[in-house]
Amino acid sequence: MELLQCAQNKTQHIHIKDFLISFGFTVLPITENIGHRAAIYVEEYRLSSGLRAGDAIIAATATENNLPLVSGNSRHFRAIKDLSLRVFKP
Fold first, then answer.
1. Does one domain contain both 51 and 19?
2. How far is 41 from 56, CA to CA, in rounded Å?
3. What is the pTM of this model?
4. Which secondary structure element, helix H or strand E, spans residue 40, and what is its range?
5. One domain, residues 68 and 25
6. Tell me, what DSSP letter sits at residue 9?
């Protein structure tokens, strides 16, 4: 979702989807638990860390699926205590 929102046209949408498929990424559904956890994250971390809805959904998806979140943007995520965050430098 976050990759697609940066696309500037339908051709870029196609390239992004092809990239995800070709590297075998799994797209996880947004469940009720993920939505609930994301809402809690926004309430708890919006003011202190600038966490927005999209990032909250990403963090909640990782947490609910017991997966690490790998991101080059640690600022919004590092305050979330139950999130396994791995920072990389692109």
1. no
2. 6
3. 0.82
4. helix 32-49
5. no
6. S
Per-residue tokens: 69 = 């979140």
Q: Whole domain around residue 12: which residue ranges? A: 1-29
Residue 58: CB partners within 8 Å, gap ≥ 6?
2, 69, 71
What residues have CB less than 8 Å from 17, skipping those under 6 apart? 4
Whether 38 and 60 have beta carbons less than 8 Å apart is answered as: yes
Same domain, yes or no, for 20 and 39?
no
Phi, psi of 15 (to 5 degrees): -65, -40
Number of domains in the chain: 2
- Residue-wise pLDDT for 24-51, tens only, equals 888 899 999 999 999 999 999 998 888 9
Whether 90 has a pLDDT exceeding 80, the answer reads no
